[in-house]
Amino acid sequence: MGCGASHAKRSNSIRQMAIPKFHLKIMNPKNNQLAEFDLPTNYEIMPLPTVMNLLSFDKNQGDYVKANFISIYNEKEDRYEYFVQQLLGVEIEKEKPQEGKVWVVYINGKRYSWDEICESEQTVKVTDEIFWRLQNSDENLPLVTATAPATS
Questions:
Q1: From CA 86, how far away is CA 75, in angstroms rounded?
Q2: CB 118: neighbour CB atoms within 10 A?
Q3: DSSP of 73-133, one letter per residue?
Q4: Phi and psi at residue 67, in whole multiples of 5°?
Q5: Is pTM beyond 0.90 here?
Q6: What is the pLDDT of residue 76?
Q7: Interstrand relation of 110-113 and 101-107 (parallel, antiparallel or unpaired)
Q8: What is the C-alpha to C-alpha distance for residues 141 and 148, in angstroms, rounded to an integer?
Q9: What are phi and psi of 10, to 5 degrees?
Q10: Would strands 90-91 and 79-87 be described as parallel, antiparallel, or unpaired?
Q11: How many percent of the chain have pLDDT more than 90?
Q12: 68 and 79 Cβ atoms separated by less than 8 Å
């Protein structure tokens, strides 16, 4: 009799102990290796800029993520544009980011610029696939998670 009630409490406490984690993948352009990071949190949905800030400046992972974020004033549009200036210690190519390779993010396979993410305060779920890649700002590349090992 008492075992059933005790079992239910234990089962509920085990479920409550599971902490949601945001999982991010970053393709390192220096070696085409995939770097993966988990950000444990109490939330299942958060704005992506918040996720990136928490991950980038976390005392345990920040040294590995090596991220920096910048804004550049666009006189034509009379507004600031936002860029990920560096990830994994790899910086964007040009002083004018639109003229070179920039860090872009794919959320569930859909490409976004960091400016779009910041302007819309794009949220992500712990179940979303978040993949970063350094590429030309006008490219929409297929997702590749890592280079395949050579086979003999």
A1: 23
A2: 20
A3: EETTTTEEEEEEEEETTEEPS-SSGGGSEEEEEEETTEEEEHHHHHHHT-EEETTS-EEEE
A4: -110, 155
A5: no
A6: 92
A7: antiparallel
A8: 17
A9: -65, -45
A10: antiparallel
A11: 63
A12: no
